[in-house]
Structure formats: structure tokens, C-alpha cells
Amino acid sequence: MATTLKASTKILELADEYPFLFDTLVEISPKLKRLKNPILKKTIGKRATLTDVSKISNVPLNRLFVLLSESISENANEVVHIDKEDKEKGEWQEELQRRQRTLKDLVLELHAGKDVEPLQEKFKEILVDVSATEVAEMEQSLISSGELTAQQVTALCDIHVQVFKESLDVQDKPETIPGHPVHTYMSENKEAQRLVEILKENPKDESTFDELRKIIVHYQRLQNQLFPLLEKAEITGPSTVMWAKEDEIREMFNNVNESNLNELLTAVEDMIYKEENILFPMSLENLSEYDWVKVRVGEEEIGYAWITPGDEWSPITPIDIHQADHEPESPGINLNTGTLTLKELDLLLRHIPVDLSFVGPDEKVKYYSATDDRIFPRSPGVIGRSVINCHPQKSFEKVQKIMTAFKEGTQDKAMFWVQMGGRFLIIGYYAVKDDNGQFMGTLEVSQDVTEIRSLEGEQRLLDWDK
Fold this sequence. Notes:
The protein has helices at about 10-15, 20-30, 40, 50-55, 60-75, 90-110, 115-125, 130-145, 150-155, 155-170, 180-200, 205-210, 215-230, 235-255, 260-285, 290-295, 300, 325, 340-350, 395-410, 450-455; strands spanning about 1-5, 80-85, 335, 340, 355-360, 365-370, 415-420, 425-435, 440-450. The chain is an alpha+beta fold. α11 packs antiparallel against α12 (about 205-210).
């Protein structure tokens, strides 16, 4: 038996005949995971040709022919012919672009003040089968094009979901195995929903309220582990919007009372819905197994809410994630006033009783001190991330102003102090320059000075025996 591949070959028809090709497609590009989306498979996905696959994956069509033919020959032991004379034909990409424009127009109507109900009916008529990834891409496109700001998208995020909810409800929920980050996130969401139900029945249950507050750790892992990987995949809109909503929930926890508890519980439930129906499906479609390994490796540094992750998910961990663990001890590093080994330098930085972070002149994080009791959580996912995206949306303008002033040389220090949980914290930003005055980056220093502020008089003797 022989198979012929050509530009107009429908990829789903080919994959139905050779199911192993789905794995081959994902190996070619994580973006092709969307071809397995049940909604897309039933609707516009049926139109996707090898021309479309080539465009989506950025793999030349001739190279795609070779990869698919090798997979079919190896796994099905069949002869594969390639018809290079067939005219390139792509329908799916054009249809996706048309749908994106329609989605954007609906949302722009919302922002213009149009009523939700008529727009919901309009949506049902033309886009009843929208997927989570399409909603996320729509928000990304609105922000990237400048048609709306991230703040504007955030402000009406809940209404966006309300308009698309009926379609999102029918898509399959993400399925992963214990130990995979998404499985952990969803397990935490399940417990959060249980606690929300208890508080709905008994709003004065303070112990349950304190337990629910732990969901902030869940948000911190998303912000520090998952969002950076999405940004590297050039997906910043959805994570920016969700971070802002998560910060709103954190503020609600700090200012809750009997009159606004239900508002907080609703916000937590809404976030669970957005994660499981938009964020997680979209992330699974766009991130590779290697990306998920990097998400998993840094999770323990931040911690978990309520649960201990399973261990059934066991991908091959790339050795370069722990490359430093396998390198031999380095010789001494000559510093300005002495010599330290790499190990000594690392230990010294981890034992300084302040939090340190260093941002290069390109405004990307190069280092943070992994102390045992950091004031503000950090994890390996932050390395290489734009410093702007390491802060909540409401701080974007402030952080950018500091970075610009340091680069231009008009300022070399910015100081802030805040009170959190009864502690007094100082956060300082310092321009780092070489001996010639060349700007090399920004040092961020955070310190808990609660005890220092309370000191009085003198202490000249050792107090260990007290």
C-alpha cells in the first residue's frame, strides 16, 4: 500500500488513517497540538491542509513532507510518494484569521458599551465553536495591535468570558496525570472550590477562610513559573490579564468583611473557570514537554496550596536544567578585593540577609538570590524574563520609568517602603555601573527591617546566653 502527500492533503484525514502522526506533529511544533482540540477537529480543523500545517509550524512544506513520510514509513511500513507539483492550498489559516477578526470586533463592541445579551446571540450565530486558544489569541491580538490596552482588556475580562461561556463549557477539560503542573493546578482548584462552598454556607468560618487564602500560593506559581514560559512563546496578553485579576483577589483577601465576602468567593470561582477553560487548554496547546519540565522544576521553591503533587508524570528531564549540578568545582574567581570559588560566591549571596535580584541592561532578569526566607517569591522561571512582566500590571509604568531613568543616567536610586502582614519592608533599586560609568544593569534589594526599626540604645555584648 502507498500513500501520497501533497500540499492540499487534509491533515486530519491523514492522521485518522495514521494516528501516530499526532505525536509526530507535536514533535514538529507544540503549536500543532491544537489539531487535537475536539472542537477544532469537528469544525474548521477539518479544512487544515499540509500547507496550513507548514504555515502554523513555520516548517517549510518540503521539510514537512520529509518528516511525515519518514514517520509513516517507520511506523506503518508503507511506501510514501510526494507530489511536489500540487498547488499549495491553505484554508484553515485564513479561516482562523477571519474568526479572530470577528472575535475582536465583538469585544470592541463590548468596550464601546454595547449590551452583552445581543452580542451573545450574535456570537452564537457566527462563532458557536470558539476554542480557549482562540479567546486567548484574541486578547493577545487586541493588546499587541494597540486596539486596547492590557488594562482595558482586564477591566472587561469577566464579560468576555460571559459572552463566550456557552462555547467554552462544551470543550473537553484538560487531562493530565499526577505530577504534571496542570494536574497540580487543577487539584488545587478542586480544593479551593470545596472551601468556597463551605464559606457560602457558613460565612463566619474563619479557619476555612484562612485555608482559602492559601490560593495566593497557587497564583504565585502561575505568575512565576507558567507565565514566563508563555511569554517566551510570545503569549503575553492572557497572562497579563490574569495576573491583574489575581492581584485583585489578593487585595480582596486583605480587605474582606461580611458585606464583600461573596464578591471575593465569586472572584475565586471566576478565576478557577478562566484557568480551566482558557489558560490551561491554551498552555497545553502551546508549550512543549520540555517547557512543562521547566515549570515543574521550580515549583517547590514557591510551594503548593493544600496538596502534594503526584509523581506519575515522569518526562525525560533535560540535563541542562541542572547543568550546574554536573559541572566540576570552578577555580577561584578574581574579584575586586579578593578571590572566591564559584561555590563560595553562590553560598555568600544566598546567606546575605536581604533579597537580591539583578536585571541586565536589556531589562531581563539575570539572577536572584535563592535565600531560604525570601520576602517576595522567586523561582527559576523568572530568569531571562522581562523585569516588567515580573511585576503586577499596576506597577508596569513605575518599573519602566525606573529602568529608563537608570539607562539615561538621570537617576541612580529608587526607594520604596511598605507594610505587609505587620512587617516593615524596604525595596531599593540601584543602577549598577562599571568603573567607566557604563550602565550594566539594575540591582533590586528587598529587606525586612521590622526588628531594626525597633532597636533602641546599644548592644555591645554577645547575647547568646539570654
